[in-house]
Amino acid sequence: MPLTHDQQAEIDETRAETRQTLRATSEGMEAHLYRAHPVLDHGFVRVIDYMGDDAAITQAARVSYGRGTKSVQNDEGLIRYLMRHWHSTPFEMCEVKLHVKLPVFVARQWIRHRTANVNEYSARYSILDREFYTPAPEQLAAQSKQNNQGRGTVLEGEEAARVLELLKSGADRAYDSYEAMLDQGDQQGLARELARMALPASIYTQWYWKVDLHNLFHFLRLRADPHAQYEIRVYAEAISACVADWVPLAWGAFEEYRLGGATLSASALDCVRRMLKGEEVTQETSGMSKREWGEFREVIG
To answer: Cα dihedral sign for 187, 191, 192, 196?
Structure first.
């Protein structure tokens, strides 16, 4: 379970507290505040705090004194214009702080996005729990033959059982060694900052991750993509659900122009224009490599 009974009780108690405020609030995001959205087998995503809403984006774009226009239609049109023309600063006026529990190997992939403020649970000061990510059977896949950083066919039968047992037993043995080395009780063992070296990358860690909406959209564009690794993609999908309720107008524009859109190179755009004129364009006459031509054909269907 992602949360213990005591942790859930603490969340319920916090959610029961209400405070009056003059700042802009988002009803959609208020519903997500503090709630833990389960991800994978032991992980979660939890909204701790946020700043701004759709009106904050348009307010910053217009540099107005109040909340901007009262017309939702005008605000939506402006937000779509900003997104369409890659104006990023107004989206930086919104921020969100998340509490995330995730496997270490996912955290190491996630931290490559160097556009957020992060504070991670410290294994130098605290002892990590015996919680490891164990893939579901449908996620046990072989290495892709075409993609060096992707998955191929799903393992089945005895091979799947063998790999699953290796993952589980290896993690348990590593944690047993970790516990045996710790300086605790009557045992003068190893310092926690050294003992943690024995822990596997599948163990869970936690952090607070604070990011503005512009950089969050960039993160989601990459990590919510169907080609992203499953274990980080499910976190991106959980965050996406929160963002869609927080800033629905900005999310709609993001879906339209980023998630659902495509960027064409100068050569690709030239090919489209030639095709519209009735010219038959091939990979040989396109000026593109075979791989780029294949990607182009996939985009235009």
So the answer is: negative
CA nearest to 208, candidates 91, 110, 101, 126: 101
CA distances from 19 to 23, 96, 249 (A): 11, 19, 26
CA distances from 179 to 125, 188, 293 (A): 14, 12, 54
Q: What is the pLDDT of residue 72?
A: 64
Residues of the chain with pLDDT under 70: 1, 64-73
Contacts of residue 165, defined as CB under 8 A and 6 or more positions apart, other chains included, come to none
**Residue 107, both tokens:** 């955290």
Catalytic amino acids? Answer: 223
Q: Annotated binding site for dUMP: which residue ranges?
A: 109-112, 120-124, 196, 223
Helical packing angle, 54-62 and 72-84, nearest 10°: 70
Collect contacts of 124-127 with beta carbons under 8 A, ≥24 apart: 124/192, 124/193, 124/196, 125/192, 126/192, 127/182, 127/184, 127/192
* Single-letter amino acid, residue 179: E
Q: What is the largest CA-CA distance in the chain?
A: 83
**189-203 per-position pLDDT tens digit:** 899 999 999 999 999
- Vertex 116: Cα angle to 120 and 202 (nearest 5): 40
CA-nearest of 40, 33, 81 to 230 is: 40
- Numbered residues of the known binding site: 89, 109-114, 120-124, 196, 212-214, 218, 223
Token digits for 70? 């009262």
* CB-based contact 183:189 (threshold 8 Å): yes
Contact 73, 41 (CB under 8 A): no
pLDDT score for 70: 55
